[in-house]
Each structure stands twice: as structure tokens, then as C-alpha cells.
Amino acid sequence: MVKQWRRWCGTAVVMWLVVVARVWMPASGQGAIQIVRQDTATRYPYSVTFRLSAVSSAAPITEARLYWQAGPQDVFNVQLVAFTPASLVSLEVPLSTQLLSLPPFAQITYRWQIRDGQGNTLVTENETFEYADNRKDWQETANERLRMLWYGLDDALVAELFAAADQSYQQLAADFGVTLEHRPLILLYPDRRAFEEFQDFVSNVEFVVGRYFPGHNIIACLVTPDLPRELLTDTLAHELSHLYSDNYYVGYTRLPLWLEEGLATYHESADLSDELELVQRAAARQRLVPFIELPAAIRANNVQTANLAYAEGATVFAFIHEMWGQGSVVDFLSAFRRTTHVDTAMRNVFGLGMADFEIAWRAWLGYPVEQVPQAIPTPTLIPLLLPTPTYLPPGGS
Ligand SMILES: [Zn+2]
Question: What is the 267 CA–ligand 1 centroid distance (Å)?
Fold first, then answer.
């Protein structure tokens, strides 16, 4: 026992000497600071601790900054670390994650910047790790397109949901004309408590069965026995469509909301008969929401209006598929990388302005019309010079 310890201890001493010899060789300027150890520890759902040991051969280390970033923003947070200057420093920076609104398995990226008294600076490479929820026995199902983490669920059900999500992914890839650079992660929760636990930061969790976390490339879904299978696959497809779109449009470009929701609804199921029936019934009663009103209707408080707006948007994509084919869907979606103007995108891709497109769509529905409501053209403003009123100071004359 003692011998064994000695042997181990001897190895450690030798290793330490190697480290010391390597880093305390006389050096000046470049390379004076070396990292001895760098890692992180996650205590889900409370905190993440960043740890670093560094040594400088030139002068005591006087300054350390931790840059970290999680989620949608590309901007890094900077934390100046307080410590006593020394040639060898061991730093620990705890970060409370409870106010960060992070979904489990969100990616956190960080780097360190260390400076010594002579002004030598070392910036480490960006490192990325997962804010993993290690309290559960997660199982993984994955291929080159998707990654699914789950626990407490029937294998066959998971296989079925994975196949459905993968099929949705492939349809989205065909519609957008590209595959995603980063593999989406889908989390499946077998009980509502666990599903809601990390979502304190979002409202209306109660009736939600699936959610996409923008910027994290993560979708969380509730999979309980009482939920119909079709609802589960529809939810997966819907959220995956939002995720895809979010990855596709960079910077300030994006689909107008009614088209974004329309596309997600279009992808929900292979057969669009429910949506088409709803839209045709509204058309028959002359109750369709005109395209110019869809931007407001999609977030209407009235559930029927909102539902109709979702369904109309979905049938727009069915119409494009049927009339112009897959290639035009790709062109239409890509047009919004250059414009946010629906009329411009439609003119460029279909040679029809929004009003003419709507007239064609209504005919396709089986309820042709001669004209549709159009946006009132913006009048040309004639500059009018108003005389600047002269204010009199109180009591003045
Ligand atoms: Zn949606």
C-alpha cells in the first residue's frame, strides 16, 4: 500500500518537475505565460465553474479575464477575476446559471486572457462545453443530421419519433436547399415537471408540449402517454422548422412572421387536409384574412383568427409547391435573405406582386376573386412649411 502510494507520488513529482522545467525556463515576452490546467465543472441546474491554473516565467501574473458566452448572442461577457498576484495562480470563477435562462445541454463557449507584470499576455483558444443535466440517465439516439437525448421512454416510441423528426429535417433541407451546419439537439421529457423545471423564464408553459430555444439549436418536447402521437410528431416538425429557419437567416434577415408560422405549420404533417379545409371553408364564406392583414392576424388574440392565419400561411407553401415546384420554394425562401418585403420576394420569384399572387392562390383554393384588398399606396408628402410658433415667456409680453 505504502509502496504503491510512493510510486504514485514519485510519478507525480516527476510530472510536476517536467511541468516546472517546461514553464520556468528563462523566457521573455512571447510564451512567458503557460497554462498548467484548464477545465470546467457543471452543477446543473445551479452553476458552472471555470477553473484555470497558469504560470508565468517572467513576472507575477497580475490580471485574469474570463470571456464567456452562452446562447443566441455572439457577444462575450467579460469577467475580471480578483486574486493575489503570483507567478503560479489557480483561479476559480463560479457562474450562477439560474438567471441565465439556459436550456439543459446549451453550449457555453469561453476563453481566458492572462497578463503578467511585464505585460506578457496569453489568450487561450475558445473552448466549448455542454451545460449538461447529469442528474438523469440520458440515452442518445443520433445520426449525422439530428441528435436526440431522452430518458424514461419506450425504445420503440423514441425510434418512431426520431424517424419522424429525421424525415421532417430532410423535408426542411429540401425546402431551404441546404443542410444545417450544426446538428440540432432534441430533448424528450417523459414527465411535465421535468419538462417545465428549466422553463421558469418563459411564460405559458402549461399548455406547451414543445419548445424551441432560439440561438441554442435545442428543442425540448414533452412525451407523455396522454398526448396523441400525431401531436408529438407535429410539434417536433413545427419546432424543427423554426430552428431551421433561425439557422438559415443570418443577421437581420428573416421570414415575415406569418410566413414563418405558415412554413412551420406546412411542415407539421405530410397531408395538409385539415388546414386546407379550414381555409376553403373561410373562403366559401368570404372570411379569409387578406394577405395584407396576415401580419396582425398571426398574433391575434382571437384564436379562430390566429388559427386561420396559420392555416393560410401553410396553404401558401402547398400552393407554391404545387404550382411552381420544389425549386421555387428554395428560391422563395432564399429571397428573404435579401429582402423582408413579401411583395418584392414574390415579384422576383413568381413574377407576381403580392395582390396578384393572392388572387392566384384564391383561384387555386377554388374560390376565385377579381381583386383583393391592397395596401393603400403611401401618398407623396408635400413638404409643408409651418411657421414656428413663438412662445412667450410666462409673464412676458
Ligand atoms: Zn410556431
Answer: 11
